UniProtKB/TrEMBL annotation:
<dbReference type="Pfam" id="PF01814">
    <property type="entry name" value="Hemerythrin"/>
</dbReference>
<feature type="domain" description="Hemerythrin-like">
    <location>
        <begin position="5"/>
        <end position="133"/>
    </location>
</feature>
<dbReference type="InterPro" id="IPR053206">
    <property type="entry name" value="Dimeric_xanthone_biosynth"/>
</dbReference>
<protein>
    <submittedName>
        <fullName>Hemerythrin domain-containing protein</fullName>
    </submittedName>
</protein>
<dbReference type="InterPro" id="IPR012312">
    <property type="entry name" value="Hemerythrin-like"/>
</dbReference>
């Protein structure tokens, strides 16, 4: 989970600057950035959906008293992030077609707000939730969470998602994640992932090392 969080922190930290750098009326560049944002938010949604469906119910059943102090915090943080994401989607659609400064600046402001709220949530998960989960969720159940996440991704996006995790993630952890995926993914995706991230980063960030 920390490997995934690291990728989210990096990409959403860089997102507002990408938007602000687009010149007035440059709809082609705006389209590139909007496609990148759409990809990021879809992966984030999938991540949160998997937690809500496969992690939280198990913990609430097994250790309700231990989890109680943070349930409302996590729910409130999810709601805040979801609300900002809705606003981002609305403004992003407007800006994509016009690349006007007003929508650009509003979108960048919302992305700044999202980054702050998302980091608060990820920090709280790592500091307060993961220690509880480590004691109460089996290795098999953790693997199921990862497998469900992989299944939910469109197959063409798998190399890019893995490449984003590889870029700053612990190599041993990434290798462990891949080792439990189906054979076809395990044998093909790692060969393509670094290339996929490099190509994507060059198009979006202008560098292979953002």
């Amino acid at each position: 989970m920390i490997v995934v969080h690291t990728a989210f922190r990096r990409e959403f930290r860089l997102a507002p600057g990408l938007v602000r750098a687009v010149e007035d009326g440059d709809t082609r560049r705006a389209g590139t950035i909007c496609a990148h944002l759409e990809f990021l938010t879809s992966v984030l949604h999938l991540h949160h959906t998997g937690e809500d469906r496969l992690l939280w119910p198990k913990l609430l059943e097994r250790v309700p008293e231990e989890l109680a102090p943070i349930v409302h915090l996590m729910e409130a943080q999810h709601e805040r992030v979801a609300a900002v994401l809705e606003d981002i989607e609305r403004v992003r659609a407007q800006w994509r077609s016009t690349a006007r400064p007003a929508e650009r600046d509003e979108l960048a402001r919302l992305l700044d707000e999202l980054y702050v709220g998302l980091c608060e949530h990820l920090d709280a998960e790592e500091e307060r939730l993961l220690p509880i989960a480590a004691r109460n969720v089996t290795e098999e159940e953790w693997l199921q969470l990862g497998e469900e996440g992989v299944k939910g991704l469109p197959k063409p996006e798998l190399p890019l998602v893995l490449g984003m995790m590889q870029y700053e993630g612990d190599p041993e952890v990434v290798a462990e994640i891949v080792s439990h995926t189906p054979w076809l993914i395990r044998s093909v995706v790692p060969m393509l992932s670094r290339r996929a991230f490099r190509k994507h980063a060059l198009a979006v960030h202008g560098t292979a090392t953002p």
